[in-house]
Amino acid sequence: MRTLLAFTALLSAPALAAAPAIHVTGWARPTVAGQAAGAAYLTIHNAGSGADRLVGLSSPAAAMVSVHQTSTAGGVARMRPAGPLAVAPNQTMTMGAGGLHVMLMGLKAPLRPGARLPLTLRFERAGLVRTNLLIQMSAPDAGHAHH
Amino acid sequence: MPDMPTTDPRPNAALRRIRLLVWVLVALAALGFAYLWLTTQRGDRSEMAVTPQGQASSSGVQLGGPFTLTGADGKPFSSAQALAGKPYVIFFGFTHCPDVCPNTLARLAQLRQKLNAGPRPFEIVFVTVDPERDTPQAVGSYAQLFNTPIIGLTGTRQQIDQVAKQHAIYQAKVKDPASPDGYTMDHGAAALLFGRDGRFVSTIAQEEGDDVALAKLRRIVA
Predict the structure, then answer these.
(1) Is Signal among the key words of this record (chain A) (predicted)?
(2) Can you name the CATH fold of B68-221?
(3) How much of chain B, in percent, has pLDDT values that exceed 90?
(4) How large is the ipTM?
(5) B57 touches chain A (CB under 8 A)
């Protein structure tokens, strides 16, 4: 047991040297009654000097929350689990429609436009980060940002 | 055999610690292998319901044609009747699809507004590729998400396969432990555009700009 503790201490030692500082914003898409799955899109900014990884998510509004990656390569829409997301120091990781997104499964109630979705993110080093996402039809700047 | 008297407990303790360390390493390695095995299993996509991937091209291939499915009201939907004389855009997806499908439908709804050619210059038709889960009610309420009339359709697996084939839409059930019911659907992402006469005109791809998409839509509503 002591060996295991020593191990953990060794692994987390660099955390003290260069700490990440995580800021999360984003939005969630509305759903209708009976719809089991919803999506949210996050912008994760790491203002710190240490790297971090998003290793888990949860919300009281859904049974299960995970990050998925969508692609439409070759004209086929595919969705796969994304795995832990690295957030480098001084970097911003932006999720977006048709790419990385947070998938909410087993929604307990429809996500109503204008309401907020509580979401807890678990980072490997920064620990738990809580956010309340606004539920809206499209990305906040969708009306202006044309690619 | 009698217990060996431990003359010096310290090296023994050290030995025990090394043994524990070895076991921890073994456990970590086992976890690693289990993870690798699981991820490769996931990657190898067991495709259970597959129709051949078609080329959505206007050259020679006659896409579309009349079809019968089930409407959101649970009653048979006959395209020959319901879509007669109406331009329409048809898109295949599923209601457990949280990203690409709502994006596409929201975009089609937005394009219909931007076209500025009356309230409903063309119909938007949404066909599920997941009829096992998507009941008429499910496609109906999903279609209501976009605050604009969208025709949501489902059917039997056989009917869906047939209609997908008619539209050269690829569909495959893919295992995904991180999705509801342990699976997700891969599906052709293009929206297909049909003119008033029911003839295939063009497709709108996900990555196409609004200008291109609007030009194509003008062709079907003209």
Answers:
(1) yes
(2) Glutaredoxin (3.40.30)
(3) 64
(4) 0.76
(5) no
